[in-house]
């Protein structure tokens, strides 16, 4: 998420700073966790490779098979982490867009979006914006409005605006 994007939405500098700080903190915390897990797997792989050196002269084909398996497992874990990071970034972008659209209930709005299509989109920000506009036009009750219902003004002709329904001095029991 870029500061310019938020500023172009007309958000105040303080709000932009808070959003950027929170988003950065979330990304950094998740990234640290994922990197720690990745480093743990790399450490395990290095330990396994060191142990394999101790067994020189033993069946090399079997050991090579184990190395290939461990390398494949590590590659699989790396791709899983990349997928998790991409999901986190997508969810952050989507949450920000839903918030900026002044949705009353973000879960209800999410339910109306085709999340898989939006995730695979090449231009997620624009496609999310377009999808939210469509949801808003079809389900405007899910979003806050700035207009006042009823519009105020004078009552229709023939409407009794007299609040005194009984003559003065009438006692009602």
Q: Cα-atom Rg, whole angstroms?
A: 30 Å
Q: Return the domain count.
A: 1
Helix content estimate: 55-70%
- How many beta-strand elements? 0
Instruction: Give the mean pLDDT.
Output: 82
Strand percentage lies at under 5%
Q: Report the major sheet.
A: none
The low-pLDDT segments are none
How would the global form be characterised? elongated
The run of helices and strands is HHHHHH
Structural category is: mainly alpha
Individual helix count: 6
Distance between the termini: 68 Å
Task: Describe what is shown at a glance.
With 173 residues, the chain is mainly alpha-helical. It is 66% helix and 0% strand.
Q: What's the structural blueprint in terms of helices and strands?
A:
Layout: H1 3-8, H2 13-54, H3 60-100, H4 106-111, H5 115-119, H6 124-138
Helix pairs in contact: 2-3, 3-6
Keywords summarizing the entry:
173 residues, 0% strand, elongated
Task: Explain what you see.
The protein is an all-alpha fold and 173 residues long. The chain has one domain. Helix content is 66%, strand content 0%. It is built from six helices and no strands. α2 runs antiparallel to α3. The radius of gyration is 30 Å and the shape is elongated. It starts with a helix and ends in a 35-residue tail after the last helix. The mean pLDDT is 82.
């Amino acid at each position: 998420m870029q500061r310019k994007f938020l500023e172009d939405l007309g958000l105040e500098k303080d709000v932009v700073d808070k959003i950027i700080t929170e988003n950065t903190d979330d990304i950094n915390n998740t990234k640290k966790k994922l990197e720690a897990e990745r480093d743990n797997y790399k450490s395990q792989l290095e330990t396994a490779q060191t142990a394999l050196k101790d067994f020189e002269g033993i069946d090399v084909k079997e050991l090579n098979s184990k190395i290939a398996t461990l390398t494949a497992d590590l590659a699989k874990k790396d791709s899983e982490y990349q997928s998790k990071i991409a999901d986190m970034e997508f969810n952050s972008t989507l949450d920000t867009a839903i918030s900026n659209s002044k949705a009353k209930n973000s879960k209800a709005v999410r339910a109306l979006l085709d999340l898989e299509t939006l995730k695979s989109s090449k231009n997620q920000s624009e496609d999310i914006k377009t999808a939210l506009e469509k949801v808003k036009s079809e389900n405007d009750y899910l979003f806050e409005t700035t207009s006042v219902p009823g519009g105020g003004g004078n009552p229709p002709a023939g409407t009794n605006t007299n609040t005194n329904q009984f003559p003065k001095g009438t006692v009602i029991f």
